[in-house]
Amino acid sequence: MSTVTFGIVPGYGEKLHAALGYSGAVRVDDRVEISGQAGVDDDLNIPDSLEDEIVQAFDNVERALATVGATWRDVIHVNSYHKVVPGGDVIGEDHNRVMAEQFRRRLGGRAPIWTETGVTVLGLAAMRVEIRVTAIAGSGA
Q: Is residue 84 within 8 Å of 129, Cβ to Cβ?
């Protein structure tokens, strides 16, 4: 039988759990899935700068992973969702540059698979990015 553990990030995750009834992460044995993480602070504020928002989303992925005993170095798959203007035909270089910098900084040389999707809306009106990952706890040690 599998062991299932749910994780709720202190701060913003507790607020979202109370308001919307979902967890930020789940671990089934060593496999970890997290819900999409926005670049918000604990009061659900979004930075003005796109770069700061993406970095905060990466920080929040790290926080969600930690609730169930995993780290960025355990990540095997990344899905990222980037707001584009309706009718837009590309996710901007401003998004890609920061994403790549954060991958290099946090993954310790690991290169997970990555699906990058352009969307016109996200969970909060001001959001420009959301990141969700799959990890195998302990695999990046």
A: no
The answer to whether 25 and 37 have CB atoms below 8 angstroms apart is: no
Residue 9 half-sphere exposure, CB side, CA atoms within 13 Å? 26
Q: Which amino acid is at 104?
A: R
DSSP, res 72 = G
User: Which residue matches tokens 């993480």?
Assistant: 37
pLDDT tens string for the chain (141 positions)?
999 999 999 999 999 999 999 999 999 999 999 999 999 999 999 999 999 999 999 999 999 999 999 999 999 999 999 999 887 788 989 999 999 999 999 999 999 999 999 999 999 999 999 999 999 999 997
Which stretches within 50-114 are classed as H helix? 50-66, 93-106
